[in-house]
Amino acid sequence: MSTPLLVHGDQFLRDGRPHRIVSGAYFRVHPDLWADRLARLSALGLNTIETYVAWNVHERRRGEHDFRGWNDLPRFLELAGAAGLDVIVRPGPYICAEWDFGGLPAWLLADGVLPGGARTLRTSDPAYLSAVDEWFDVLLPRVLPLLATRGGPVVAVQVENEYGSFGDDAAYLEHLRAGLVSRGVDVLLVTSDGPTPDMLRCGSVPGVLATVNFGSRTAESLDALRAEQPVGPQMCMEYWDGWFDHWGEPHHVRSVDSAAGVLDELLAAGASLNLYMAHGGTNVGLWSGANVSEGRHQPTVTSYDYDAAVGEAGELTAKFHAFREVIGRHRELPPLTRVPELPRLATQRVPTTAGPGLLEVAEELGEAAASPMPLTMEQLGQDHGLVHYRGRVLAPAGEHPLSVVGLHDRATVLADGRPLGALDGNETEAALTVRGSGAVVRLDLFVENQGRVNYGTQLGERKGITGGVRLGRRWIHGWASRPVRLDDPGFLTAVTRFAERAGAGPGADRSGAPEGSGAAYGGGGALAPVAAEAPMFHRGEISVPAPGDGFLALPGWGKGFVWLNGFLLGRYWHVGPQRTLYAPAPLWRSGSNIVWVLEMETAGGPLELRDRPDLGPVTDPAKPD
Length: 625
Fold this sequence. Notes:
Low-confidence stretches: 504-521
Number of strands: 35
Helix content: 10-25%
Oligomer: single chain
Structural class: alpha+beta
Mean pLDDT: 93
Distance between the termini: 37 Å
């Protein structure tokens, strides 16, 4: 039975004896694989698991809470305890984690929820605190029975996350601390912040143990923590042993020698630590976040392999064996028993057939909301996916610039049903050409939320079109805005039914252009090319003898989304670095498996089922720490 973790002077105590936390972070894994991954992390030599709790996963719509399946937090905590591991829970409400909106729910950005708007997030604003209190009232009763003080595995709970790099509202942090305690949390409370005096000072809470996050400069970082907290155990809550990837950048890795060397420094210094990440997992579906650098939006890829000790598909990497050897120098480890190999599916090429166009499907998803200007995702009660915008504009003959103001984040543009190209939110102007005596043009824009910012002062941007659309000098008014919820369980069912009913093949005319309009259209400016038939669904069928781990590749394809047996695996994009999507064994079934692809730009050749991942060309980054 677990016993509480205590602080005594400069050390932790368990059962009256000195104790060191050797922990690993873990968050994004199919629930059927939880026990397997916990066994692998225990074999690494860890005695503790750290997990975030993403508020937006459990409460996608205000007042509707989900703790089933992937979201069954109590079951995960129980499995960790059964594996002999302590648990550190980091419930936020903000978690960062390269997760959409840093774990905050999108409905906080809907009209009227926060009268002060996004600038009141993570502050002592009463409206924001009220929403957080409602969440804690639901979450904490599920955690309390699993606290170490009640015989469970949870030995510590974190107050917020890296607050010192965001703000300095001490009343906010104290409200969270008091809220945890008043609701019954009586285990060790901690904070975690970057290794600078201002971050540590602004993120700390009186009476709460401060910890520090870094990836190198061990002595300097621990000295910074000691300067702000003269007494107490020293702990690195996030030892950054790898890094994450953005679309369009190389795949980040960190050398085994570098990562193992800093791990040895930490343990030799007597510090406790949490490997971030010990096992990264996958940003399944649409949950990946984004950063902003020099004004440019940088969405995070679907994979969260992180170059961790245990790979995305459970691989025991060279870093795993090096880390275990280092840990074994500083604490006694049992012999490494054989960790079972996970079955892999055999490689094969998978032909696809064209299904319906996205425009056709969207028109059957229910009534659109009418308004003079386009509505944002949040105004439509939507968190992820696409928004379909439709408007009409009189376009005189000639070439006219089409501008989208406040585009978040990427738009596929069609004129009278014919694709013009793709607009990126970082480059928001293109050219629309109409040749003739002048015509009323029907515009359709599918705008993708590529991930909300998860870190920094730009937290809280709305998605979709936040400004408006102009043709030349004038605004286009009179819009219909419709949510396209790609990860809604019923969405793919609607696509399948439409395809079966329509029976449309690749040769079908989906232009939607009015007969005899005499208009011709062309794209230019900052537009990316889009094939004449896009955006379109494509269907493939994969037969396997038995479930196993697989990796889906789409060579020659442009940008889009992939579903396996109705489950949205995530996004792909030709800009890389990620070239395969991890499809874990629990999603497969013996015999026939159906893959749907929504290609937004240009379809390629056959899909490929591979037996190993390809996360792209690598770089060894100089990490921010």
